[in-house]
Model the fold of this input.
Amino acid sequence: MLGVAVKLAQYTEDAPKLVAVASKTSLSRKPLQQLLDIDDKEVEVWVKETFRRQHFSPWEHASYTFIVDGLSRVASHQLVRHRHASYTQMSHRYTEGYLRALALEASKLSGNNCPEKPASGKREAYACYSNAITEATLLVGSEVELAKLASLAFVPPAAFSRKEGLLESWARTVLNTASSYYRLLSEGL
Done:
């Protein structure tokens, strides 16, 4: 419920060899085919040498793509700030996927029949989402279930799970905020 999920989506095959060859290229006059013809022991030597010399540009030839879900905005901003990689982050200005997932789950819990996507009657759909979230917040009894619902769209601070009452307070606050957001959208704002 409160965890981060990380999945390796794709990577450069034989990345260490690619790093070693790139490193050798900068220091050798040998033809490319000879540079590519190296064994595992030589790969290890060249990779360690790039690290020893702090020569990291050859490492940029290898690529690993991870999908990270459930990371707080604070943590993601720290990663982006201290970059040695490329990042693509879901825009919270142009998407509402997680928020709508929360609204639809609240719709199920509260017995509302909200549309999966607001089509032509956007204002009515947004009003339904707002009501569903408000009603579900009142219906859900336990702190854990309330936090589970809120966690569909928001990432709680880890410390909140260790202090009694903070998780529930956080969950109620973000759920009320989500309900207010949809209420404002339903009014054309």
Remarks:
- The chain has a mean pLDDT of 84.
